[in-house]
Design goal:
The structure holds 2 protein chains of 2 kinds. Chain A is globular, with a radius of gyration of 25 Å. Chain A folds into 3 domains: 2-230, Rossmann fold; 234-282, SH3 type barrels (Roll), CATH 2.30.30; 285-366, OB fold (Dihydrolipoamide Acetyltransferase, E2P). Chain A has helices at residues 38-46, 94-99, 107-120, 136-148, 166-183, 194-200, 218-223, 228-233, 346-351, and strands spanning 2-12, 15-24, 27-31, 53-58, 61-65, 70-71, 79-82, 154-158, 186-191, 203-208, 211-217, 239-247, 251-256, 259-264, 278-283, 288-290, 307-316, 320-327, 340-345, 359-364, 369-372. Chain A has 9 helices and 21 strands. By secondary structure, chain A is of the alpha+beta class. Chain B is an all-alpha fold. Chain B has one domain: MetI-like (MetI-like fold, Orthogonal Bundle), CATH 1.10.3720.10. Chain B has helices spanning 4-33, 39-45, 48-51, 54-65, 70-77, 86-110, 114-122, 127-155, 159-165, 175-184, 188-213. In chain B, helix 1 (4-33) packs parallel to helix 6 (86-110), helix 6 (86-110) packs across helix 9 (159-165) and helix 10 runs antiparallel to helix 11 (188-213). The model of chain B has no long low-confidence stretch (mean pLDDT 92). The chains are: A alpha+beta, B mainly alpha. Chains A and B meet through strand 7 of A and helix 7 and helix 8 of B.
Amino acid sequence: MTVLSVSLTKRLPDFTLDVTWDAADVVTGLFGPSGSGKTLTLDCLAGLARPDAGRIVLRDRVLFDAARGIDVPSRDRRLGYVFQGYALFPHLTASDNVAYGLRGRPRDERRRRVADVIGRLGLSGLEQRYPAQLSGGERQRVALGRALAPEPTLLLLDEPFSALDLPRRRALRDDLARVLRDWGTAAVVVTHDFTEAYRLADRIVVYEAGRVVQAAPRAELLWQPASEAVARIMGIPNVLHGTVVKATPDRIQLRWRDQILEAVNSPTRSYLPPPETPIAFFIRPEYVRLIRKDRGPADPGHHMNLMTGVVVADEDFGTTWLLRIRLDAPGPPAQGDHDLQVEVPHLVHEILEIERDRRWEFSIHRGSIHVLPA
Amino acid sequence: MDLFPLRLSLEVSLAATALTLGLGVPVAWALGRRAFPGHDLLAALVVTPLVLPPTVLGYYLLVLVGARGPVGRVLDAIGIEVAFTWKGAVLAACVGSIPLLIRAAQAGFEAVDPRLEAAARTLGRSEWSVFWSVTLPLAWRAVLAGAVLAFCRAFGDFGITLMVAGSIPGKTQTLPLAIYDHVQANQMPEANTLALLAAGLVVVLLLGLGRVVRLRY
């Protein structure tokens, strides 16, 4: 069921926002690089910025309609907005911050509601602290509590983790995911970090330069970015270019670095370019398999898309190693000094003695080569 | 000795400060928080009392509120006389000191993070409520500092008051005017006492202000 439908245009001196998307009764992620118009969209939703044209409908309530001259003021929109950096009132205690949006309700109800929110967010004991006396994570929870206390129809979160250091981010991401599920409030989360968007949102809307380039359930986005541009915004490594040899509804054969690769065509959106068409595709670094030398030669019937190459560089990421591999193929490598990035768990790196042994044979399952429609 | 000028000066500058707050805070808020046509003109206009010669300022005020002036005639019709009364002294002190309040308060309002006011709006508060619950509580130190400076300036006004209210002993002669009169009449001990009182009061006020604005939550 559609909870929110957004269609808006806003022109600024050196930027134009022009987006249309819907959100269901779940968590929607707005994902894209900084400056792509995500926060401006939230401000338009909350009535803090006024679009030049368009329409915003929240559960059958028209919040904005340029054609009909409707522009409901912020205070009547009943949206909970968790700002980037939280924007807590520094002169009010945690519990007064939470109670701020409850003015006008009976004193009893107000007290009960604040106690309930404080309890559910694990802020008991911190009621009388001022924001300056709270940790980053506690501030985030107070900001959530302040936004949730008046029972908003929709929760807006702008870069909810930008104010936190890295180790805290991961713990709080799970915290927030739990709160959102627990509360059952529809939410829109803005983030420029794909992992965050994927962890928090059920559906992701991808922004680039003020436009929507793709809107899809998170799993679909992860495996089927709609274009090379989307794959690059998502920061996917190994976005490569080849030419089509043959395309059928199930398979696409393509030529890349002097070899033929076989990929699965999308079952839902078959892409049938004619032979010799340039084609972009990506290979997830964690899906490239190294072939063990102690188990005999590779079996082409079992191992698809076999190739050989040399590890030219490897980087230690703690739990994984990232290998940069240059294939034994003529011509310049596809990505500067290497052709492929391959991620292997630390243990594998150790057992296979990759530190010492640099020449390897690889295979890539055809289901792990993802074609990007032009 | 006659301490009437001290009492009158205190009363006049208190009344002037109240008037300054009432008029100056909304103007400072509008200058610091709103965009409107004539914003820059208003911003320039409110500081002119700082740079115009007091006698010129006083002269224009007198022309305005004098018995034959445009404002004076209206006030006269409803039975209010301003020129050469204590009310004239209040008006003079207010005009001379209001730039100090507006400048300080405007800077205070500008320093409040607009996102906090935006947050208050999304939480259902009207503009009026946002001002009283967020903007002012976060800018009050600047407003108070401006009010104390304005009070001190009002307390010490000489030129504007002389032009608008005159220097009528026992009626409109404020402390600075009385000191001048004593010196003219070569009554140095009296001048000395009043000058010490004035200087002492201002120093105590500014010291107290320094303590208050350093308070933190």
